[in-house]
# Entry
Amino acid sequence: MKITHAEVEHVSRLARLALSEKELDSLTGEMDAILGYVEQLNSLNTEGIVPTAHAVPMENAFRADEVKPGFTPEQALSNAPDAVENAFRVRRVIE
Amino acid sequence: MTIYDLTLAELRDRLDRRELSASEVTGAYLERIAATNPKLNSFITVCAETATAEAEAADRAISAGETAPLTGLPIAAKDIFNTAGVRTTCGSKILGNYIPPYDATAIARIKAQKAVIVGKLNMDEFAMGSSNENSAFGAVCNPWKLSHVPGGSSGGSAACIAACQAAAALGTDTGGSIRQPAAYCSVVGLKPTYGRVSRYGVVAYASSLDQVGPLTRDVRDSALMLQAIAGYDPADSTSVNTPVPDYQAALAGDLKGLRIGLPQEYFIAGLDDDVRTAVEEATATCRDLGAEMIEVSLPHTAYAVACYYLIATAEASSNLARYDGVRYGLRADQAENLIDMYMQSRAAGFGPEVKRRIMLGTYALSSGYYDAYYLKAQKVRTLIRQDFLDAFEKVDVLLTPVAPTPAFAIGEKVNDPLQMYLSDIYTIPVNLAGTCAMSLPCGFSADGLPIGLQLIGKPFEEATILGTAYAFEQATTWHERKAEI
# Structure
């Protein structure tokens, strides 16, 4: 086994996904099969190979620090599940 | 010939000569969508009202002599593009009610030319899939055979063009999501070089691989659409600031002097016989047109799918962290505390494939596994990219199949994620290398399903593959066949 049920449960907490026992069971099997498949990469010697993050060479993109028009508070809050006084409202974080 | 059979270029000509008005054209397309969408389910949202108003505005512009290449032409967009004031779901329940306050750059650019946006197209949820079966808004049927998938993730876009529901469509391609559905539906699909088209306002899946491109009836229309959307955008720091050539000028006659490479690793066991035959015939056509065919090798091809599924899922797990139920999207209200609210909202909003990829990506990035999986995959990506750069020392264009088989039946691969992933084996390497490629019709299987030909070009040489594709198209009639729907 490449991955256990307990590890899948741990990853689900890292990913902030509430999964049922049934989902955890099927994901354990599916992830095990996929991790078995990707194992083939280990047969390649990649010593000294520079990793590619972007296929096209990138330079840091600077821009002038200028104020430009942006969203109004109404636009920014227009899709909020719960908004109050120009803010997104969530459950109490600090008791 | 009915209005909806005309290409973008033909419609442009009719509009310019005042033989048709933009309002007539849009009206014909809205009727066509209403008549065919119940069978196909290619649209998530039809923009009848705004499209009618946009067509009237286009007619006023044409009367005033202010015509741009796309003025008055009916275009649909994959539901991954943010459209100001129009619901943008990305095929997901979690964005089921999301109405963006802004336009993606690609949308803004075609709107600036007064194109008419007729609607938003179905897709695999968050562009994760190869069959369009992962949409929260239902599967899409292939116009050539309704029992079959249209491909994915831009399945709605390809079906829409094959069924003449819009004159052109916008899609996105992360591992083949424009080219594979284009092949399954017998339309032309172009994935430009990474950085050629702005990704601003396109819902992110795997940011180092995602790229915007058109799906069209023919190659000339593909060049027209790329011309409209290509170019540097300060709002996307990964868009590249190089000049955009005149793509129409690249559409010339023959292929004399062109060196076309045939990568031997793409013609192996697992390739369907009908697909092999069609691609071999296409090879002969290119030779007849004057191209020199050269066998080349892309030695790391077999590792591309494994490499892709680590990189794409890792980037996806990071990108999709933003769906937390706080600022937009679905929120689960019964949660006891903030963390629980995140976990419940995401569990209720995402479908099974999206959860699977988030989980795989989170695992690949997690402490203790990062080097073994994500970093290893990034190094293999370097080798795959180098394969292409080496091949392009010897040839100008690569010619390959788009997919190992024609479209498969709805439900056939839904329970086997790995088999589904392998349907992208010929398209994924191009995204990892970051270069450009297109899919165009090159035949049909014995049971009448379309087959696509892939042309892969050097980085930023879209003009070369468009020119090659145009010469091939002129010498063949596959693009003239229409699905009966």
